[in-house]
Each structure stands twice: as C-alpha cells, then as structure tokens.
Design goal:
Elements: E1 10-14, E2 20-24, H1 60-86, H2 92-105, E3 112-113, E4 118-119, H3 129-132, H4 143-168, H5 179-191, H6 194-201, H7 207-222, H8 226-238, H9 241-257, H10 262-281, H11 289-293, H12 308-317, H13 319-328, H14 330-337, H15 348-363, H16 377-395, H17 401-423, H18 427-431, H19 436-448, E5 454-458, E6 471-474, E7 479-482, E8 487-491, H20 502-513, E9 518-524, E10 527-532, E11 540-543, E12 549-551, E13 560-563, E14 572-575, E15 580-590, E16 593-603, E17 607-613, E18 618-625, E19 632-640, E20 651-652, E21 655-656, E22 666-674, E23 680-689
Parallel strand pairs: 5-6, 5-8
Antiparallel strand pairs: 1-2, 3-4, 7-11, 8-10, 9-10, 12-23, 13-14, 14-23, 15-22, 16-19, 16-23, 17-18, 17-22, 20-21
Helix pairs in contact: 1-4, 1-5, 4-5, 4-7, 4-16, 5-16, 5-17, 7-8, 7-9, 7-16, 8-9, 9-10, 9-15, 15-16, 16-17
Length: 695
C-alpha cells in the first residue's frame, strides 16, 4: 500500500559510532520542520510517532528494566495459566476455542463446535485459528492455547513499549520531558494495569491477538512503513470481525492525526467496515448487530423482528439512547481508561481504536465489563502509548509545560498503582474458583473418560473436557443435549464460575441419577460424575431449569456424608457423629412471598431443620425436633417479606466499576443440624410456594 503525502523535511543525523544516514523525518518539532500542529499524535508540534534515528533516548538500564519486567510478567502469566489449567478453572469460552483447536490439529479442517452449536468458521470469522492449531500438532496439550494468549498479551505490551522508546528517542523529546521518566511511566501503565491480568485469567479469546496485530499495524503506519503495515492489517482481518473493527478504529486515528494520514486512514476505515459487513452477511455469529445493539434502535419494541439496516437507522435517529447507554456505563469506561493513563485517550493514537472498542462493549446489551475485560484489551496498550504522547505534548507548552507534565505523570502512576492495589489481589479469587480437592476429583474423572465418549459438563469446569468431538456445557435454564452413545455427565454445583444456578445443577444431578443406564462413577468435593448408557432410541437428555425437591445425598454437609449403597431410593445424607450440619447448601433463588420448606429425615437424636436467607445472612425459620420414630416429613412455613441486596464488590474509593448485577431475588437455603452422636438420615429437601405441594 503506497500512500502519497506532503513533502517531508530531509535531515542528516549522525549515528553513534560515527556512521551517518540521510533520513526522511515526520518530526515537526525540530527547527527545520513544519510548524507545530495539535492535529498530530505526537507531542506538542510532533508528527505521528515514527521510528527515529538514535539520539537522546532512554538509558539502556531503563529499557532493560522495562523489558525485564515484561519478561517477569510473561513468566507469571505462563505459571498462572498452568495453575488455572490444573485446577480446571476454565469455562465454556475456553471449551469452545479449545475444541476447535483440538479438532483442527487432529485433521478436521471444518470442525463443528458442539459448545457453540455451529461450525467454528462462523464464530466471528476467526480464521487465524487454523494456523494457530498447528501448535497443537506437536504439542497436544490444552495449556498451549493459554500460553499463546499469554504471548499475545505480553507481545502487545512489548510493541507498545518499543513504540514509546522510538518516540522518546527523538532529539526534540529530551528538551521537553525526561526520556527515562517517559519510558518508566509507560512500563508502569502496561505492567501494573490489573485488567491485563484479568484478560489473561479469563479462558482464551482472540482479543489479545487482535490487539497485537492492530498495534503492529499502527506502529508501522505512523512510521510510514506501509510494507509492514499491510501484512499486519491482513492478518488482523483474518482474526475476525472484532479485529476488523479495530482496523477501522486505526483508520479513525489516522484521519484525525493530520492531512498526510487521511488517505491511508480512509482506506483502513473502509476496509475494516467492509470486512465486518461481509462477515455479517456470511452469517457470522459475532456479526449479529441486531442482538447486540438492537435495544438502541427501539423503545419497547421487539428487537428480534428488526433487520440490520433498521438497527443502524434506528440508532442514527435516536442518538440520545446512545448517550444514555454510555452515561449508565460511565464508571466502566473510566475504569478501562484510567489504569492505562486516561489522558492518552485525548490523542489520536489513544483515541481511534479505544473509541471503537469502548463503543462496541459499552453499547452492547448488558454490562459486560466485570466479566469480559478481554473485550477491552486493545484499549490498555493504545491508551498507554497515547499517554506518553500526551505528556510530551503538555511538556512542550511554553509556560510551565514541563512542570505540569511531570505532575500529571506522577498522578497517573499513582492512579494506576491504586487500581492495581485494589483489583490485582482479587484476580485469583475472582477467576480461580475450583478447589484443589475438586480439581483432583475432576482430573480422575477426565482420565477415565474415553476420547470417543460424549461429555455434558457444568460450564464452570467445561474447558478441560473439550479435547473431543462432542462436549456440551450446562449453562443455565432448561436444556436438551443430543446423545448418541455412552455419555458422561459431570456436574459441579458449587465449583467454578457457573451460569446455571446451584439449584439447577442439583436438579441435573437428580435427573441424571434417575435415568435408566446411569451409573455414578465418581464424587467428592462437590463433583458428581455419571456414566450414562442411554436406552436404545434415546437421542436427547433434558435437564430441568430448577427443582422443588433435591436429594439430600447431593448436599451432605460438614457433619454428614453421602450414603450411596443399594437402590437410588435409599440414598441419603447420614450424620458422621460430629456436631454440625448433616445437610446444607440446598439452594433456591426466589423473590418475596410465602413458602414452605420440607425435609424428609429420620433421627434418634434431637435435630434442627433451618431455613436461611443466604443473601442477607438471616435465619428465616427453625424447627427443633425430638428423636423421630422412623422417617418423618417436616414442614416449615415462612414469610420472605424482605429482599436483601446482594453483596457485590465494586471497588474502593475512586477505583470502582459497575459489575454485572446478580440475578433477581434472594438465595434461600435449607439445612439440617445435629448436636453430634446418634444416627441421622436426611433423604430429601424441598421448597415450594405456600399452597403448593413439592413436585
């Protein structure tokens, strides 16, 4: 791609070591260049950041420290990926990508992704998965896919840091702002941004690869190295429609950078937008503009009846809805920009791509930030580079510029470290939600499942089970799953990041255990695994969305154990003889109203049956029972007249986000307590609205 531009000044610079080269230079900050222009994305009076001849630059030791910190960050991410993989803390998203990666590496060049429910090539047009799968041929291990993402994450930061080093190497830079300090600020913004680690911690996604390719294209574009820019753009387009939108965002950056960049900028906008439109016409899942943005085009209408053209016209005709949606999500917009430097968004380099990203993620239906930081990953690198550009621009002010830039740099570093202090410690607790004990049970289950068997598994631990042709995730709500032979069903009601409620998964355990041909093969630490050989003619397994009654053996407490001998009807939770709860964690999410809790049990010691509102930590009802004579049914009527707000961490002080709100209603729990000693058996626990019998 060759783009003509206005004549540029020709400067002769002397390189270290006595060698000199004649170079064309877009740096308008020198005395021989064009007058300063605020349109350019460099410092005050600078042109677009280009690769300069070495001059006054950051010290060697500062650059080495920066590269060393990136290397340490990569080592940490690689190690965390190993831990995450070993702990089975990989969800549906990893399962979807890993299944395609596995099948392509094993020769299936048109894999049907059973997790997504369509051929993988339709998943956002992410055609780069095919060459990436080559790594799965010699290294047939799922953790390699996570390592590829780790390399993309740190690689993006490395390109950003290299761009900053180029920028501060200009002769004019040292007269305005200390190069060592500029590089140091960039390193802090890149390495200390907590959302970088959250991106890597959340399964595998193409967004880090998108960001790496588009950042490479941006650096080459503003250095006028079009022979390097064009291949990066082509690869970015092959990475999918989301990456293509970033290409269009890069075009926006070029358009606002100055006259000499408008033609390549226009080309990039057209190419990126056209590729997104083409993929949408081809039926890509990610091209569903109606589902994501239809709510902006209508007011109380039926989004599903709209076409793409109607959505675009509706949004254009009602800009107030767009502004309202952005205002509602203002905390998340700031949360994405602030750790990366915030002021970088005011420069062309830090504006074009981040604008596209923030609009696409914050205008889509729902509040995605707290669970999907990976979607915003490109923001962090581009804004960090733009922040250094902004500091150089401020330092070039005639009065007090250097002092103001130094003060702003200090504030930005403190702000980034504040975000890191609040959110980095929460990374493991937020993303690593499978206990070591549960991981050991799951590892044993995984080893015993043949590669040819189908697996239906809770989405919170689905990732490690996806190296096969047929795997399905229990995601939430009533679901029907196709079966064609021996099927393993793995349910983890209290492990992993789950979309399905605990009650829905307890209902799944009860349903599968009662199916003809079902055999319990492993359990422990909240993991239940069944082998099911469906009767002839059976083609589906339907799991309910909820259950009024749950088997007590699936919720044995700290003072109980599951007794699974003999026929299913006799399975129960039995007291161990210790003081405490024989059964607990029997959960239901309900709203206000009157309810009846029930327990079928027998005991030769006094016991308590309790109902708790777990959301508020409040005891709603308790009945103390004397020793029973055989099995008895206990009913507890109670009123849930108050709804308690769920406790969701939103941050501290100015370092806050707006997380995805919890589901409506409160979580009710039934527990059975024993004083210790004696024999206590609990068979069934149930909760229904008043006036209705348990089903």
């Amino acid at each position: 791609m060759t783009v003509p531009g206005p004549p540029r000044s020709t400067l002769v610079r002397t390189r270290m070591g006595g060698r000199s080269d004649t170079e064309t230079d877009t740096d308008t900050a020198t005395d021989t260049a064009t007058p300063p222009s605020p349109e350019h994305p460099g410092g005050a009076g600078e042109g677009p950041p280009a690769v300069p001849a070495p001059g006054a630059s950051a010290s060697v030791w500062v650059r080495r420290v920066g590269w060393g910190l990136l290397a340490l960050q990569l080592a940490w991410l690689v190690g965390y990926s190993v831990v995450e993989f070993q702990r089975f803390a990989l969800t549906l998203d990893f399962a979807a990508y890993h299944q395609a990666w596995y099948l392509i590496a094993h020769g299936d060049l048109d894999p049907y992704d059973t997790v997504l429910g369509f051929p993988f090539w339709r998943n956002n047009g992410e055609f780069l998965m095919w060459p990436l799968a080559l790594a799965g041929v010699p290294f047939d291990h799922g953790v390699v896919l996570l390592w590829i993402q780790d390399l993309a994450v740190v690689g993006t930061e490395a390109v950003a840091l290299a761009w900053v080093v180029d920028l501060v190497g200009r002769p004019a830079w040292a007269r305005r702002f200390p190069p060592d300090l500029a590089v140091g600020v960039a390193v802090v913004l890149l390495v200390a941004d907590p959302w970088v680690y959250w991106t890597a911690a959340f399964d595998f996604h193409f967004e880090p690869i998108d960001a790496l390719l588009v950042l490479l294209a941006a650096r080459a574009l503003f250095a006028r190295r079009f022979r390097w820019c064009a291949p990066a753009v082509v690869l970015a387009l092959l990475a999918g429609d989301l990456s293509a939108s970033l290409v269009a965002g890069l075009g926006v950056a070029a358009l606002v950078a100055g006259r000499q960049w408008r033609r390549p900028g226009l080309v990039l906008v057209v190419v990126g937008a056209a590729w997104v439109g083409l993929l949408s016409l081809l039926g890509m899942r990610g091209g569903n503009l109606v589902g994501a943005y239809g709510h902006l085009a209508v007011s109380g209408g039926v989004v599903g009846q709209l076409g793409t053209g109607q959505v675009v016209a509706g949004i254009a005709g009602h800009p107030a809805r767009v502004l309202h949606a952005l205002w509602v999500r203002r905390d998340n917009i700031v949360a994405n920009l602030a750790p990366a430097g915030l002021v970088g968004f005011l420069t062309p380099v830090g504006f074009g791509v981040p604008l596209v990203v923030l609009l696409s993620t914050n205008l889509a239906a729902g509040l995605l930030f707290s669970q999907d930081p990976f979607q915003n990953f490109a923001v962090y690198a581009f804004v960090a580079v733009g922040t250094v550009v902004a500091l150089g621009r401020v330092a070039g002010w005639r009065r007090w510029g250097r002092a103001v830039a130094l003060a702003v740099a200090g504030l930005l570093v403190v702000d980034t470290l504040g975000w890191a202090a609040v959110w980095l410690p929460r990374t493991p607790t937020h993303w690593l939600r499978v206990t070591p004990g549960a991981a050991r049970v799951l590892a044993g289950v995984e080893r015993r499942i043949p590669a040819s068997a189908e697996v239906i598994v809770s989405q919170g631990v689905a990732g490690r089970f996806s190296g096969r042709r047929a795997v399905y995730a229990i995601f939430g709500g009533r679901g029907s799953y196709p079966v064609s032979g021996t099927t393993y069903v793995v349910v983890t009601p209290f492990q992993g990041i789950e979309a399905a409620s605990a009650n829905a998964q307890l209902a799944a355990i009860a349903t599968v255990s009662a199916e003809p041909g079902s055999t319990l093969v492993a359990h422990g630490h909240g993991v239940w695994a069944f082998r099911w050989d469906p009767p002839g003619g059976t083609t589906t397994l339907t799991l309910p969305a909820q259950a009024a009654a749950v088997p007590a053996w699936s919720v044995a407490g700290a003072a109980g154990r599951a007794v699974l001998d003999g026929p299913l009807a006799g399975w129960h939770a039995a007291a161990t003889g210790s003081r405490g709860y024989v059964a607990d964690r029997a959960y239901w999410r309900e709203g206000r109203g009157s309810y009846v809790a029930s327990a079928v049990l027998s005991a030769d010691v006094p016991v308590n049956v309790e109902v708790w509102n777990d959301t508020g930590g409040v005891l709603l009802a308790r009945r103390s029972l004397p020793p029973t004579r055989g099995e008895t049914v206990v009913h507890l009527a109670f009123d849930a007249s108050r709804t308690y707000p769920a406790t969701v961490f939103t941050g501290v002080g100015p370092f806050r986000i707006t997380p995805v709100p919890p589901p409506p209603g409160n979580v009710f729990e039934i527990r059975v307590w024993s004083p210790g000693g004696g024999v206590v058996r609990v068979f069934t626990l149930a909760l229904v609205p008043a006036g209705r019998a348990p089903g």
